[in-house]
Amino acid sequence: MSGADAGRGGAGGGRPGREAPTGAYAGRRRRRRGRGERSMVPDASFSSYYGKPVLNKPTWKALDIAGYLYLGGLAGASSLLAAGGELTGRPRLAAPAKLGAAGAISLSLAALVHDLGRPTRFLNMLRVFKPTSPMSVGSWILVGYAPLTMAAAATEVAVRYRLLGSTAAEVASRYRLLGSAATLGAAALGPAVATYTAVLLSDTAVPSWHEGYRQLPFVFAGSAAAAASGLALAAAPTSQAGPARRTALLGAALELGAFQLMRRRMGIAAEPFDQGRPRILLRASEALTVTGAALALLSGRLRDRRVALAAGAALLTGSAALRFGVFHAGVASAEDPRYTVVPQRERLAAQGS
């Protein structure tokens, strides 16, 4: 039925009276008919209101917000690897992880502010702390995390390049202590930084984000771990990259397993993952993540830097493809009202049974 037909009151052009039954009441009226009677009006089938989406699709820019999701995850997981390298005496693993975390969180914040339009809009989100708002909690997590990450990276650079003045030995010791404290503090907030964006997406009404609220944080955690291990594999010598290789395997397994479980449990809202651009991105992500994990394992046995570099590139690219695929799938699900209405009807039917 076209919008014009609907505006004229349907095919007959008349306006229904106030007594016209609707919804569940209409169903009860139909059931009270005798066995020999048939309804002259067919059961209502799915359609949208005037052919319009039920939801307004997200207006976020794909490069900004999907990039913000990816870089935030990379930063948070890199802080954990940096702390691991620090505690296990692997300075050449800890150093690139610290610098990578600082660079990633800087770019992540820049992407967020660019999407918001003005820096003051981000500052306005800090005026009130609302524990029930993922956006508010996430903003405050970033405010606590970013300075610690910057301090850890700055002290690493200062000690490494001896930017400490005349009393280098004494000051270096103090800087190392400060840097270690900042590294451990950033690592404590790292898991929240890597996963809060999944909670943020799930808190929206966008079907392909909201329906995966149970598993999406685990998907993002695995993706972040895979990306951070990819960066470490590419930058650290193979002799010190053991934690990165193990993290790559664990992250890839968590990402792939949680994503498949999420798709099975989402019902119809998972369809956009298998259509158009999201399908291409997510298939590429899966292939790259599996390849990267296999190469990471192989690099440990061969001690070959070229294999480690290939593993790192595959894991970093696969993680990025996952974030962009999830983003575009959410936008596609908001554009089609079927993904909003059908799950709602299924939940109502389950409650009534």
TrEMBL record:
Subcellular location: Cell membrane
Major location (coarse): membrane
Organism of origin: Streptomyces griseofuscus
Matches recorded under Pfam families: NrfD
Name of the protein: Polysulfide reductase
Gly residues biased stretches: 1-15
InterPro entries tied to this protein: Electron_transfer_protein (IPR052049), NrfD-like (IPR005614)
PANTHER family in UniProt: PROTEIN NRFD
